[in-house]
Amino acid sequence: MTDATSTTAPSLLTIDTVGRVMTIGLNRPAKRNALNDGIILEIERTFAALPEAIGAVVFHGIGAHFSAGLDLSELSERDATAGLMHSRMWHRVFDAIQHARVPSIAALQGAVIGGGLELACACHIRVADPTAYYALPEGQRGIFVGGGGSVRLPRLVGVARMADMMLTGRVYTATEGVGLGFSQYLTEQGGALAKAVELAERVAQNAPLTNFAVLQALPLIAEASPQTGLMLEALMASVAQSDQEAKKRIRDFLDRKAGKVKPG
Ligand code: 1HE
Fold first, then answer.
1. Could you tell me the distance, in angstroms and rounded to a whole number, from the CA of residue 164 to the centre of ligand 1?
2. Annotated catalytic sites, by residue?
3. Which domain holds residue 241?
4. Is-contact 13 41, C-beta < 8 A?
5. How far apart are CA 61 and CA 127, in angstroms?
6. CATH classification of the domain holding 232
7. Would you say the CB of residue 29 lies under 6 angstroms from ligand 1?
8. 101 CA distance to ligand 1 centroid (A)?
């Protein structure tokens, strides 16, 4: 009997499911997890088939780096039309992450560069260890962001900061990044994945409708005019609180069966 695993190429993603958390590893460490079409389309397939039991997803990079960004070796032969379609394909897949049924958390270490940063920005929470660093070397390469970076990153760190990174090649460290909005959490070295999984487990215990509202309604409300936003908020709030799950959770609190809010 032949050993099939020894002849097939390693999967571009590692997928592990523990409880309600799916962990997705970018698995091209020899190429610093550069994002080729295969990886992006594999992410799309994974999200399209996300089992109902999954309540949160964690992205991380196998090896020392999260991702070195777009696989530059795939870029050289692309003409303008192919480049446009390629960028729109990334948009489709990263939108699927951002607008999924469940939240995604990115565990960051080492290089978080270009398209790797764009992928991290499509996630809802970013957790970095001290080795993480953020860069947009598109200026040096003669290209432009194409994975939604110009839409998502300014909302996290501001247009001026992103422009500086692209124009001068400025690199931000993990320590700087947590204060500036690149990540929301900074862990000890090697701790990003464990912290991301811990957060994902917590997030997966929320009422599904609350997570849905945070992913689907909150970004729309934040971009809407104040009056439209307030009306959307009222509608979402009324739907959420009328859900049986909300009624049960509130009853549990009033019956002293639910946890209290504690500082820190
Ligand atoms: C790659 C890529 C890549 C590494 N595409 N192959 N991204 C960049 O401009 C970042 C380019 N990469 C780097 O600056 C460095 O590789 C790192 C700082 C990430 C890591 O350095 P190091 O010394 O650990 O590794 P290395 O020796 O540079 O790379 C190891 C291998 O990975 C090597 O291949 P090998 O066959 O010679 O071993 C590299 O060629 C390969 N590699 N990064 C292809 N990016 C939708 S638009 C998004 C636009 C962007 O993302 S622009 C940013 C592109």
1. 21
2. 118, 138
3. 208-254
4. no
5. 12
6. 1.10.12.10
7. no
8. 32
Residue 113 alpha carbon to ligand 1 centre in Å: 9
Q: Looking at residue 35, what DSSP letter applies? A: B
pLDDT in tens, 14-73: 999 999 999 999 999 999 999 999 999 999 999 999 999 999 999 999 999 999 999 999
Ligand 1 pocket residue status of 149, Cβ below 6 Å: no
For the whole model, what pTM was predicted?
Answer: 0.95
Q: Quick check: is 262 in a domain?
A: no
CATH number of the domain that 172 lies in?
A: 3.90.226.10
Whether residue 213 sits in one domain with residue 200:
no
For the purposes of burial, counting CB atoms within 10 Å of the CB of 164, is it exposed (0-12), middle (13-18) or buried (19 or more)? middle
**CB 32 near ligand 1, within 6 Å:** yes
Number of domains in the chain: 2
Nearest CA to ligand 1 atom 23: 32
Q: In this predicted model, what pLDDT tens digit does every residue of 130-144 receive, in sequence order?
A: 999 999 999 899 999
The number of residues making up the chain comes to 264
